[in-house]
Amino acid sequence: MIWAYHQNLQSLGSRKRAGQMPRLVDHEQRRREITTAARTVIATGGLDAATFQAVAAEAGISVRLIQYYFGTKRDLMLATHTAVVADFGVGFTEQFTALGPEATPREIIRTFAVGLLPLDERRRQDNLVFAAFHAANLTGNTVTSEEMMGAPRYLVNVITEQLLRARGAESDAHAAELDAELIVGGVSSITQFVLAGGATRERAVELLDRLLDRMLL
Predict the structure, then answer these.
(1) Taking all residues of the chain, what is their mean pLDDT, rounded to a whole number?
(2) Cα angle at 53 between 48 and 57, to 5 degrees?
């Protein structure tokens, strides 16, 4: 991804020197604007509300333009889901880098887990989008389990690795994976609790820390 971005920048510089319009960059920006509008619509009304007409109105563009970039609603929804996952990934990378090489397993796990919680408005909206996709997956509409589970599986793998690091190389790898799945599932449940108004953001962090206390004795 970084290499492709670098190549795009080089290509952009060449086109500017040649007096050409940076068409590829314009296309990517437009796609981003459309998926951002779709995220807003989904967070407010769910996937059913995210029609081409509603997304076009939110983005301030024509329906035809959305059809140009995304031929079907499913294409638009999958691109929107990918955009949310990518933004979480960028956040995780920044947070992990900020921890530094001396970070403990608990610090790493907690950083990833806190990054998932709806502790600000942006993450609240993104978690509402994820909840809408989860509901669609349960009903077999729009997305499949395979398309949904890439990000959770990545988190399970990261947390499993850190649990093994904390417990020692000879510890039970299967038990660590099970505990990692419990942590990811627990964070998901805490998130839903906050979104439903059952817990404050402060309480969410408190619940997370108690969960990690029990997993990292």
Answers:
(1) 86
(2) 115
